[in-house]
Automatic annotation (TrEMBL):
This is small monomeric GTPase. GO terms for molecular function: G protein activity; GTP binding. The gene is Rab33b. Signal peptide: none annotated. Belongs to the small GTPase superfamily. Rab family.
Amino acid sequence: MAAEMESSLETSFSSSCVVSGASGLLPPARSRIFKIIVIGDSNVGKTCLTYRFCAGRFPDRTEATIGVDFRERAVEIDGERIKIQLWDTAGQERFRKSMVQHYYRNVHAVVFVYDMTNMASFHSLPLWIEECKQHLLASDIPRILVGNKCDLGSAIQVPTDLAQKFADTHSMPLFETSAKNPNDNDHVEAIFMTLAHKLKSHKPLMLSQPPENGVVLKPEAKPSVTCWC
Ligand SMILES: Nc1nc2c(ncn2[C@@H]2O[C@H](COP(=O)(O)OP(=O)(O)OP(=O)(O)O)[C@@H](O)[C@H]2O)c(=O)[nH]1
């Protein structure tokens, strides 16, 4: 499925060029697509975070991700329509094995997630960073660290200063948030929009698609944050 997804993205660029050239029409409007992989231990809330951003709400129920799930959302930043494609990867080793090489192809950014109420998920972060290294992710790819489930107040095990120290050591901005608490909806929004801003200003056009059926889609969101960290 991942291979199909990548293949369809790759062909969408070339077919749009061929069509516009053959018909003599103006080139179709292009929207950049940014592939962001979301990784971390099982149960930290990767599915809920990506669902919150793409569907605007907490999912009614979730099951362990098998392989990878894709979620996509179009946003407009500074007048440009951009597609943010979130790859929600399986945290459980047994559900990752066959897919893992697909996650890391053509990645534009990485979101590392831990569960603020689960110290073990925080201690796993070096392993996730190591996995990225092993798959030869370029060192200049934007990476962010997200502590999820901040709504669980008294159950929190990972102190902010400890997480901040880790984030500083690995040159990543840290965000603490909750996919569940509606009051923090804006924060989840801000995290991914901040990443989109960063990508927009730094990355060249990589993939593009013509507008669906010639209709220019309305932006689904406006950026709520303009700073990076
Ligand atoms: N209280 C609270 N619970 C959350 C939050 N985010 C996720 N959960 C719960 O945590 C559990 C795991 O969430 P998922 O999003 O499925 O976790 P995941 O990281 O995608 O797990 P895998 O697919 O196994 O890798 C579910 O029971 C969610 O309801 C949050 O912000 N707050």
